[in-house]
Design brief:
With 173 residues, this protein is mainly alpha-helical. Helix content is 73%, strand content 2%. A two-stranded parallel ribbon has the order 1-2. Helix 1 runs antiparallel to helix 2. The longest helix has 29 residues. The radius of gyration is 21 Å and the shape is globular. It starts with a helix and ends with a helix.
């Protein structure tokens, strides 16, 4: 993990505490609101903080799957970045499945929309890149999160299901 990634995590924890304190003070802290607050804080920190001191080589990257060539060029850094992009949107997909009762298609569209909002904002943010690969991986992460949540719900239902005793035909009459 790079120093910038560690700094982003630290900023995310700091922002989470800052935004959770008022909820805690006014006794409005619920599990869902705390989860959304922590996720939004971490998402903001991971995509916008810390600001980079070295400007990127380009401002827009429109070639799909460019990260694969970058992995061969730059080593594992590009692969790790794409993996983290997928993981960053897994909680969003899970929240959409658990709480929003959305379909996989809706989770994909919402994941894409949130990702597009972030990438569009990065066009105006200093030293950030609009990357089409981020749109792809973030959307993939949202769908994988939705699928993982669906699998968890089905597994939980299977484990907690009470088997019904079978009745014979003689008992029916």
């Amino acid at each position: 993990m790079t120093n910038a990634q560690l700094a982003s995590i630290q900023w995310g924890v700091f922002l989470s505490v800052v935004f959770l304190l008022p909820q805690l003070m006014f006794r409005r802290l619920a599990f869902r609101s705390a989860t959304v607050t922590v996720y939004a804080s971490m998402l903001f920190a991971a995509t916008f903080l810390p600001t980079q001191t070295v400007p990127p080589r380009q401002a827009v990257q429109l070639v799909p799957f460019r990260w694969i060539a970058d992995t061969f060029q730059d080593g594992r850094i590009a692969f790790d970045q794409m993996t983290l992009n997928v993981l960053l949107f897994v909680p969003l997909g899970a929240m959409l499945m658990f709480w929003g009762r959305r379909t996989a298609g809706q989770a994909a569209v919402i994941g894409y929309g949130v990702s597009l909002l972030i990438e569009g904002s990065q066009l105006m943010w200093a030293n950030r890149i609009f990357d089409v690969d981020d749109l792809i991986t973030n959307t993939t992460g949202a769908v994988l999160g939705w699928l993982g949540a669906l699998a968890a719900v089905k597994a939980y239902a299977r484990v907690t299901a009470v088997p019904q005793p079978q009745r014979s035909l003689a008992e029916v009459r």
